[in-house]
Design goal:
The structure holds three protein chains of three kinds. Chain B has two helices and five strands, in the order ββαβαββ. Chain B is of the alpha+beta class. The longest helix of chain B is centred in the middle third of the chain and has 25 residues. Chain C has one domain: Translation Initiation Factor IF3, CATH 3.30.110.70. Chain C has three helices and three strands.
Amino acid sequence: MKFKSREITDGVNVTPTHPLKELCILVGGIVGTLVAIFFVLGWIAGWLVAKIPAKYEEKLGRLYAYAFADSTHSKELDAAEAYLQDIVDRLAADLPEKRFPYRVSIHCSQQANAFAIPGGQIVILSELLKQVQSEQELAMVLGHEIGHHVNRDHLRGLGRSLAIMTVMMAIGVSEQSGMAQKVANYTGNLLLLRYSRSAEMAADNVGFQLVQYHYAKPHGALDLFKTFEKLVPKSATKFPAWGLTHPHPQARFQRLRERLTKSSASQHERKPLAAGIFANICESKADSDNK
Amino acid sequence: MLLTNLESIPNRRVVEHYGLVTGSSIRAKHVGRDFMAGLKNIVGGELRGYTELINESRQQAIERMTQQAESLGANAIINVRFSTSAIMAGAAELFAYGTAVKLG
Amino acid sequence: MDALINLGIFVALLCVGYLAGTLAERNHYRRIRRRERASRNFPVFTDNDTKNLSGMQEAFLASGSIVVSVDYFKRFLANLRNLVGGRLSSYESLLDRGRREAMLRMKEDARRRGGHFIVNARLETSAIGNMQNNKNKVTCVEVLAYGTAIRLTNPELLAGKS
């Protein structure tokens, strides 16, 4: 046996594929699959949501309602809730199909926001009540939330995020190390935001239609978006449409404004709020929160 | 002390067997080196600090094995094997073992 | 906003990892090839058949080891690949580099200490520091090459090892 020194063979253990090409294929494939799954699931969730009986929805709603249940109810709070309830009843009176009566409640908070909760509940945060200027604006907020109920958006969102979580667990995203998970989360979140945007626009439409039915002069409702614009943080205008759960107020205003000029040319007039009705609703509550 | 991973030394005869000798050394990460390694981990390539650290530890394991063999009266260790195992995050065991023998 | 900053850092790390990593790898391969060519005539055998060996002067243990890690970009690629399954080609070059470097170091160790060839060469690979999925841990691979270096009384006999 003799040792012969041969030329060295190189690179038999390395695949010659360019890493960037592999990255593109992998990212494209994974994102594509996720998007496809997302839309299929969204479609299924939307289809299923329409089949949920009102009875179960109310049960589901009770789970959520705990989070907004205030133990102490002052007289002012009760009066304000009754006032809001009256507006809601009037707005909802002409809806063609009602699954359950809409009930409105006020929750004390520093944030200006409102939610639609399964089971026909509407929660308005106290800060928002302090910001609105006229009854039309208030009706627009309530109409918007009724719009969510009519379109069953809250359930759809719930079903969708549950489905997404299940899929991500199934492909093992939670087990993998951080980076892949981050990518999956970003894409998932963006899609969820995008989804809620179109739903917000639809809810705006329903809300504004209700206001138009019940107020001879609905122009004032559009002031709501001017109020909102003041609340939007400055950074959001620099990076529009990315970080917000709702579309930019300016965009919403423009859309409805166009509809208004098409349908009727009522003059701009506001119906004032019942005087001082929201002044002291959360005073005692705020004190106890500070402690 | 003669160390080899052969079963026997060519041209020499084993006169006495003393059985298995082992040497082990467990090292945890080094704070300073670990920091550098963390940076190096972004660009990849050889982590020189770790290479040195592991070589030192392996040397220590070999020394311990040799000590044991000496105390048995051996003058060579044949069939030496090494193994490395990560026993927990940030710590590794370097292990050496072989058969202590006396060569004639 | 936070998400954007995080995304920015992540993309920057990917770019740095890719550029620096590719450059470092290319340089390393260049060095490996040069040294492999230089040590082409230094034989390494994996058998332990030394019964008929004559003219041996000395036998000793020679070893070479290296700890290598993969860059940020390739690690990300491997993580993605792990979701889908299939060949982890981004780690192949890591192990290839590690093995060849360790072998070269073993040869150099043997030659420096006066050996003429190596028999019973063994390669051992172990992952250190990547227990579980702890993302902040350094993930790297240690490759150890070792074997018995033989020194002959008459190196000219080497060509006729039989």
